[in-house]
Every structure is written in structure tokens, then in C-alpha cells.
UniProtKB/TrEMBL annotation:
PANTHER family referenced in this protein's UniProt entry, alphabetically: BICARBONATE TRANSPORT ATP-BINDING PROTEIN CMPC (PTHR42781:SF8), SPERMIDINE/PUTRESCINE IMPORT ATP-BINDING PROTEIN POTA (PTHR42781)
Biological classification of the source: Bacteria, Pseudomonadati, Pseudomonadota, Alphaproteobacteria, Sphingomonadales
Protein name: ABC transporter ATP-binding protein
Domain of life: Bacteria
GO molecular function: ATP binding
Length: 250
């Protein structure tokens, strides 16, 4: 079976600074991959490769066995720790914006029947993340948890196959984080997503992932810290036996 994503001897270098080196791994469709590692180990750089925001300086990244083009496509969505949503748009228009970006590249706006259909989809997505009644609310009026629900809705509205999460729950209180764990688990299953999540929380990595990757440097040169890059040093397959329970879990 072809892996959804394959990394073949992938390097990321900025000038003479090596960030990632010799990354070789396959990611299967439907997996939930957690990535942990020290600050600066190239975890966000790895996500940018998957997003198509950046091309490897050496090696190749394959999507469905084909070389991935260095461009963001609607089949990949991303949620960051903060600032994923647009402050000047209410919740409904934030999610609609995600659709407009993907569906109407020329004008950037949807009109008439297409807009009505899109708004129905938007409301269904807001419902899926528990924000249907907050459709007219602006991000500044929302709690951190609500903003992250909105960011997830915005990322999922284009029905991506791959959802990238960069420390998505890092700024949230523990109770809210549990709710978000339950939500993301439900959406991962319902939407048959492949999730790649960077987190600094080891417990979260193991609670949510079907696989945990650690990124770190195998070699260090104390006189030239940029000489060696990080790679996937541990690759741990997990059996997810238990459901993640949050207060909003179905
Ligand atoms: N465009 C760039 N030009 C030069 N260096 C860069 C660039 N982007 C990232 N880096 C460097 O690459 C290294 C890895 O950054 P990256 O953000 O991928 O690490 P990370 O593991 O996600 O870190 P953190 O956990 O702190 O978010 C850092 O040293 C960073 O300064």
C-alpha cells in the first residue's frame, strides 16, 4: 500500500544552517501522528513541508506516491496555537473565508446560490465544533477554547485529508484542553482525517496519537551548533484503546 506521505532523505537548510537532516518516514492515511522534541528541532519546519509552504533543500516529499508540489492545497489544513482566525470577521464569515479561499480563487468571493450553499456548509461545520450559536460572534469576544474551535472549523471546511496542528492547545487551560482533545478525536474519526500534531505536552502526544515521533539531533558540534540538523530519533506506534473524554464528549 502506498503511504499517504513519504519523506525520502529530506533535508531543510537555511544557508549553512541545517535544521532537518536525513528524515525518512512514511505516514499512513488515517493515522494521528504526534511530534515532540526540543525547541528549534524543526517541528514547525516539518509541518511547513507537509503544508507545501516550503520545499526540502534535499530529498523529496511524496503525497500519494507523487512528488509534492510546493504549494498549499485544499487537501491540507492547519491550525496554529494562536492567530489562525481573522479578527475582523465574525465566526461564520471566518469559516466562509476558508471556503472562499479554496473555492473561488479568481474572485475570492462566493455569490448567489453558491454562497447560500456555502453558508449551509459553514453552519454544519460550526455545529460540528460546538459553535453554531456563536456564528455572529467576533474572535475578540470569544474564549481561547472557542477561538481554537473556530480555527479548527476554518481548517476543516475545505474537507482536507490532512490536518496539521501546531501546538493547537498550548495556550488553553487544562479543562478546556481536555474538551479540545475529545473534539479533535471525534473530528479525526468522523472526517477520516490524517492528523499531524506538534505538541510540547508529552501526555497529550501519547493520549491522542496513534504514533509518536520525536525530533532531535543525533549529532552535536558544540563549536558549530548549526552544523547538524534534527531527525526523527524515536518512532513509537501506539494502540489507542481508550476514548479521550472531555465535558463536551458525545
Ligand atoms: N526561514 C528561516 N530562515 C532561517 N532559519 C529558520 C527559518 N525558519 C526556521 N528557522 C530556524 O530553524 C530552526 C527550527 O525552527 P522550527 O520553528 O521548525 O523549530 P520547532 O521545533 O518548531 O521549534 P519550537 O518548538 O520552538 O516551535 C530554528 O532554529 C529556527 O530559527
Amino acid at each position: 500500500m502506498t503511504a499517504l506521505l513519504s519523506f525520502r532523505n529530506v533535508w531543510v537548510e537555511y544557508g549553512d544552517k541545517i535544521v532537518l537532516e536525513r528524515v525518512g518516514l512514511d505516514i499512513d492515511a488515517g493515522s494521528f501522528v504526534s511530534i515532540v522534541g526540543p525547541s528549534g528541532a524543526g517541528k514547525s519546519s516539518f509541518l511547513r513541508l507537509v503544508l507545501g509552504q516550503e520545499a526540502p533543500s534535499r530529498g523529496e516529499v511524496l503525497l500519494d506516491g507523487q512528488p509534492m508540489r510546493a504549494e498549499c492545497g485544499p487537501d491540507r489544513g492547519i491550525v496554529f496555537q494562536r492567530y489562525s482566525v481573522l479578527p475582523h470577521l465574525d465566526a461564520r464569515r471566518n469559516v466562509l473565508f476558508g471556503l472562499e479561499c479554496a473555492g473561488a480563487r479568481v474572485t475570492g468571493r462566493l455569490f448567489g446560490a453558491a454562497r447560500r450553499r456555502a453558508l449551509e456548509e459553514v453552519d454544519a461545520m460550526l455545529d460540528a465544533v460546538g459553535l453554531l450559536s456563536a456564528g455572529g460572534t467576533y474572535p475578540a469576544q470569544m474564549s481561547g477554547g472557542m477561538q481554537q474551535r473556530l480555527a479548527i472549523a476554518q481548517a476543516l471546511i475545505t474537507r482536507p485529508r490532512i490536518l496539521l496542528l501546531d501546538e493547537p492547545f498550548g495556550a488553553l487551560d487544562p479543562g478546556i484542553r481536555k474538551d479540545m482533545h475529545a473534539l479533535i478525536t471525534r473530528l479525526w474519526r468522523e472526517y477520516s482525517l490524517t492528523v499531524i500534531m506538534v505538541t510540547h505536552d508529552i501526555g497529550e502526544a501519547f493520549a491522542l496519537g496513534t504514533r509518536v515521533l520525536t525530533f532531535d539531533k543525533r549529532r552535536h558540534d558544540p563549536h558549530a551548533p548549526h552544523r547538524y540538523g534534527a531527525t526523527a530519533t524515536y518512532d513509537i506506534a501506539l494502540e489507542r484503546k481508550t476514548e479521550v473524554q472531555g465535558s463536551d464528549a458525545e
